[in-house]
Amino acid sequence: MTALRAGTFPEQAVRERARTGAAAAFPSLSDYGSALLGEPVGPAPADALDAARLVPPVFMPLRLEKLIDLAREPLHGDVDLATTVGGFTARLPLYLSAFGSTRAVGTDLGLAAAAQAGALGIPMVVGENVVPVDGYTGERSLLARISAYADHAPDGAGGVVVQQSTEDADAEVWNRVYSDPATRSLLDSGRLGFELKVGQGAKPGLGGLTVVDGDAADRLAGQYALEPLGDRVLRSASPGTFTEEILRQQVRLMRNNYPRARVWVKLPPGRDVAAAADVAWQAGADAVTVDGAEGGSGWAPTASLAGVGLPLAECLRRIGSPCGCLLVSGRVWEGLRAVKCLAAGATATGLGRAALLAVDENPRSGLTRLVEAMALELRLLISALGKYHPSALSTEDLWSPAGWSVPASSMVAG
Amino acid sequence: MDTTTPAPADPRAHLTSPATRAVLRVQHRVLDAVREHLGGRGFTEMLPPVIGPVTDPGARGAKQVDVDYYGHRYKLMTSAILYKQASLTAFDRIFCIAPNVRLEPLETSSTSRHLAEFHQIDVEVAGASRDDATRVAEDLVVHVVRRVVEHCVAELGVLGRDPDAFTDLVSGRGFERRTHATAVADLHGFGHDQNPDAEIDWTGEALLSSKSSSPFFVTDYPKGSRGFYDRENPANPGRLLNFDLLAPEGYGELCSGSEREHEYAAIVARMRETGENPAKYAWYLKMVREGVPSSAGFGIGLERLVRYLCGLDSVWQASAFPKIPGVVSP
């Protein structure tokens, strides 16, 4: 365990899961048989997703279908969590969100998370600016993370997605990865993808920000905007300029230039997130990832963190019924919030800060245990809704005191 | 064609083989004919730069080669396009025999028509339209083929290439044209799953090429399949005023060209659409902002043209010192 902190995140709960795995999905086992349980009394819901509840029906026609299929009453263990996530076969409706090059992600954490995500068979996104800041080869490098993942991934499952932002284009990150013999097994097995970074949750409208020391600043001069910040230097990447046409053509160019790679687009929680997601899907993106304003592990201005961008719940509402694979992240660390996201239209949810904290707690198996607990919750909750695959979830499974309104244009008939 | 012809293990064996010698003589004749033809039509031959702060980003998935230029990151040229446009401020009609280096994706090692190091016969004409450029390209190819057929009978004999293969080409009937949309429909008709928004893929290109007995143009590629300098058709947004010239008999693409974007704002917007960071194109954008002539032009792959003329299995056989993508070689 390092000095990694996440004050705005349920850090202790995540660390407990990283230590104890599925047991942490229940009240303390020592209370079993002695404590009288009920709805926990905790702090007020942090957002509309937390405020919403999953609402199982009484009548369950899909459970009947499963019963007929199995010739016995189904249980939560019959929920099949294998899902196609952005063109990859994933064993769970989860993916490892991008970690940038910020200092919180030390060598061990980035590599540990990559190795465990690989073994779990869930896709992993590697953040932009890893190459310009940490290099392409070497201990902390992009290639080290990709190798750690590929060395542990089971055949036919998972995939690695490499981000590139506007300045990264100078380093030709995608060209380099696509032509590298070291990534050929991933490419040949259809498990390599590229993610166009349009923005992020923690600082919508701004580009990547990192704080570097003087030596690193000298190295980055000329490529990034640099300005003093206390006794350090703030390095700013541009967010890039996007219009509908620019986004459409960039996605098409990715498909043109890397025909064997999957194409993902990461959107910030902007007010036109639904329109942008549609442009990306229409242009052929295999997935659109949306980072809610509550998401993000990276360095950001306090003002952005406090009051810029749509919360994930509102992004999901505005997108309604997605016409492509929608991947979302933003304070997801346990199964309840994940299932709510899936019911609200997502195909999978990303683990960002939760994954970092988990591997910080236990570099060998922290993420594996965290995911073990989530997988049990996903199975329990999805089966409680009378469903046996994440794709069967819908907004009928959600109830909110404020109502879970979906744009009329996005309502699915029936 | 045998697509599995191995690369030569030994440069001496390659250079001293009668076949390679015949191929290199044909290449020499091709270069003579290019200079004869273009020189006689008012073109000035220029020598293109080998390195620069920025190069053509338009190559599909290919990595550029970085060079440390006194502490600055420079690039080996992947094509001469930026310098061709700039050169039109000196002369209205220019050409060059440009060396290019592209670290192509490894999958191209089996296409039989990719080299990591190759040469282009690059042509650019100020004030020209796409139709002007295709006319120049067609006349040039016909002239070169005629010269080779006239002067390289012995070499073609060594290589087993029947000069009758060029009967249609030199007949004066003109090269057929079809749009990218038609080519995509043709490929779908052949059962090939071609992405309509993208470049014709390697397999599709070979398929189209194998169905033809004479070179043909494919025009109007979709935006999103080419670099920022291919001009978007104002009358047909989303389509480019560009073209490829494909050889027949399965030999595939010989040449790419287009009418060029030359207006500053359009170029900057197109750079963003192709994911480029305009900041690194400073010298080029300054020139464009101050004004460069409208133009059209093209680049013919020299080794590809020689491969077609000689009827070679693989393009590396048309190079004295071939660099096949991913293969370590002298």
Automatic annotation (TrEMBL), chain A:
Gene3D superfamilies associated with the record: Aldolase class I
Family according to the record: Belongs to the glutamate synthase family.
Source taxon at top rank: Bacteria
Gene Ontology biological process terms from the UniProt entry: glutamate biosynthetic process
SUPFAM superfamilies: FMN-linked oxidoreductases
A GO molecular-function annotation: glutamate synthase activity
Pfam families: Glu_synthase (PF01645)
InterPro entries registered for this protein in UniProt: Aldolase_TIM, Glu_synthdom
Protein name in the entry: Glutamate synthase conserved region-containing protein
Boundaries of every Glutamate synthase domain copy: 194-359
Residues in the signal sequence: none
Organism from which the protein derives: Lentzea albida
UniProtKB/TrEMBL annotation, chain B:
PROSITE patterns reported for this sequence: AA_TRNA_LIGASE_II
Source taxon at top rank: Bacteria
GO annotation terms (biological process): asparaginyl-tRNA aminoacylation
Residues that span the membrane, as ranges: none
A GO molecular function held by the record: asparagine-tRNA ligase activity
Protein name: Asparaginyl-tRNA synthetase
Domain Aminoacyl-transfer RNA synthetases class-II family profile: 24-330
UniProt entry keywords in alphabetical sequence: Aminoacyl-tRNA synthetase, ATP-binding, Ligase, Nucleotide-binding, Protein biosynthesis
